Amino acid sequence: LAIDALESWLRTANSLVEIRRSASPPVMETRLLTNYPNPFNPETWIPYELAAPADVAIEIYAATGQRVRRLELGRKRAGRYHQRALAGYWDGRDETGEPAASGVYFYLLHVVDSDEIGKGARTYVGKMTLLK
Question: What is the rounded distance in angstroms from the CA atom of residue 3 to the CA atom of residue 9?
Fold first, then answer.
């Protein structure tokens, strides 16, 4: 009896999740949003939206133009990646694990929404400040 009740509850919960997903309007344009918090210390989240499925990566650059870190986010479905658990996450460290210095950084969202390399590739840019 308890197992039947649990299965019924899970079916209801899954239905509610599907209704909620279908209730939100589709993303019409791929965009990069402002990182949160900004300024930040020691970590930040970088939200974005995808109008189509895509391979996604975020690169962090110092104001000098030197690349600090690359975050490979992988293949993502079309949708909104606003919440901390879904957005890009930077822990304020460089590729070697050392803490980045205070200053202005640029973050680039690379989106490839085609299986053919070079087709459908776009880059979006944002600016953030690391304060210690």
Answer: 10
Q: Is the dihedral of CA 23, 25, 31, 34 positive or negative?
A: negative
89-103 per-position pLDDT tens digit: 999 999 999 999 999
Q: What are the DSSP calls for the chain, one per residue?
A: -HHHHHHHHHHHHHHHHHHHHHHSPPP-S-EE---BSSSBSS-EEE-EEESS-EEEEEEEEETTS-EEEEEEEEEE-SEEE-STTTSEEE-SB-TTSPBPPSEEEEEEEEEE-SSSTTSSEEEEEEEEEE--
**Exposed, middle or buried, 53 (CB in 10 Å: 0-12/13-18/19+)?**
middle
In whole angstroms, give the CA distance from residue 100 to residue 69. Answer: 10
Instruction: Express each pLDDT in 8-57 by its tens digit.
Output: 766 766 555 554 555 678 999 999 999 999 999 999 999 999 999 999 99
